Predict the structure.
Amino acid sequence: MRIILLGPPGAGKGTQAKFIAEDFSIPEISTGNMLRAAVETPLGLKVKEIMSQGLLVPDDIIINLVEHRIQQPDCAGGFLFDGFPRTTAQADALKERHIKIDHVVELAVDDDEIVARVTGRWVHPGSGRVYHMTYHPPKVPGLDDETGEPLIQREDDSLVTVRKRLKVYREQTEPLLSYYETWANSGDSMAPKFSRVIATGSLPDVRAKIMNVLR
Ligand code: AMP
């Protein structure tokens, strides 16, 4: 199974991606996590400033990163993209390389809800596990449930940056929704299925809705 999760920053892609990846036994490929993991490398230094401003990293860097990642043996049985593709050029790159995707799932959430979610978000840097002060607090405040290590707030989760990231999403990534919806309805056998899931409500509810469309 090859899946793309689309949706604005803060829609819950990271959290739901972990569930889905586990259920289908496929790796979660988060380009954001890959870039953050590369902070100490020349690539990381190059993109750090762009990321902290909430802007998109150039397409060629991302496409290169993903192209290498999906050649790893753990991707043989499928994978889940979280945060990729984010531009039409990135989606076209998949198409041109004949990388067939089975299903594109949009997690839909409105802007006010996103601002509330993102600004309350805490993450465990080692694993990418995501918590929320109100909606999904860790058992012990400030610490990861599994390792007990400290949680951090991402630099790009500040209010100003979130607003910027939302604007970037609406302008550059949202067009992908009609890109995939139109393609799905075209009858092309290469086209992934397209489903929209309203991603408000509890985590288990959203998870169930996603599994429902994927099965
Ligand atoms: P994320 O963790 O998915 O919210 O990504 C964090 C940041 O990494 C984004 O705001 C972008 O600066 C960068 N990024 C991640 N994935 C992509 C992508 N597919 N295309 C361009 N930039 C990306």
Strands lie at 2-6, 28-30, 79-82, 103-108, 121-123, 130-132, 193-198. The two ends are 11 Å apart (CA to CA).
